[in-house]
Design goal:
TIM Barrel, 18 helices, alpha/beta, 45% helix
Length: 403
Amino acid sequence: MVARRLQTWAQLRPLLRVQPFQLDPVARRLAGAHTVGDLRTLARRRTPRSVFDYVDGAAEGEVSIRRARRVLRDLELQPSVLRDVGQVDLSTTILGTPAALPYVLAPTGFTRMMHQAGEVAVARSAQRHGVPYTLSTMGTTSIEALAAAVPGGRNWFGFYVWKDRAAGEDLMTRAREAGYETLVLTVDVPVGGARLRDNRNGFTIPPALTARTILDGAMHPRWWADFLTTEPIRFATFDSWGGTIEELAAHLFDPTVELDDLAWVREFWDGPLVVKGIQTVADAERVVGAGADAIVLSNHGGRQLDRAPVPLRLLPDVVQAVGDRAEVMVDTGFSSGADIVAGIALGASAVMLGRAYLYGLMAGGERGVDRMHEILTADILRTLQLLGVRSIAELTPAHVRLP
């Protein structure tokens, strides 16, 4: 028999923890986010379906992104115990310059559509947390405006080769003159992927006012209020567009780009050159042989060719082939500090993140991006300590077993 008795108020009082009510709704919302997945849930609630699906979706049957996430989910981390991890160094070097954390914020288009603060908010957050931010050619903030707003940041420029080569030359010249540190040339978009979520949602840039979007707006009044009362969403590097993403890619991007065009890029860009969108060992060797300072193993977040290779699986072979001549970065599917640690352990100099920071931006603007950095910083620190590793530099392939 268990003896029972009521506890006295004096015994219960020390157990009561009354939390003060947070008046700021953004702070209150973000305080409950403990993972990037939590930020995704908040983002889904706060943005129209078509905007959220543009960020969240991928190409065709979305097989590529599911495979990438499955590999990250199923990999095995190999810890070593009885090691002093009282002090852990999360910093690293990316393209010869120190970074506080081992990741880069990737170029993403149309960022003011996710939140009116747009690219400037993301770049400011990146500067505060000591990581590079990449402004996209398809951005909604101009090259010069971002440089003026975040003059002390590690600003990179994400470049697509257009059919209008003179316009591309102008973009590279403007980025160089505005002090951008690195050019990221994306090479996996000769044509646009089939983004079926976007097609089914009737998604256009900027969002059109239709019966469907107006009805969705009733469910997301704050987003629509911002959309209708702030500076109109427009592209910063070319005239406005009123069609789908697929049609835009067909209109702008040059499908005839070849390896020899890297020499043309080098005529206008003498700083670090990163080539993003490499999906085979052979292409990694070709691009590094042509003068790239770094490559990004990427299938564009699963948004181009569905059933493309999983970048993380390619990483060890590519590092073995070209790692002594160029830095190798990786993206697609990374959404936690443990994911990032695994990528670095397998040989990447950095991981590129896209969706993760966009979820934060949609969830809470600039503070939402800050929250993503806080979550990932804590994740990385905890993962290193549990692995028995005292610095990013100590990670090796022995710490990871791929499925």
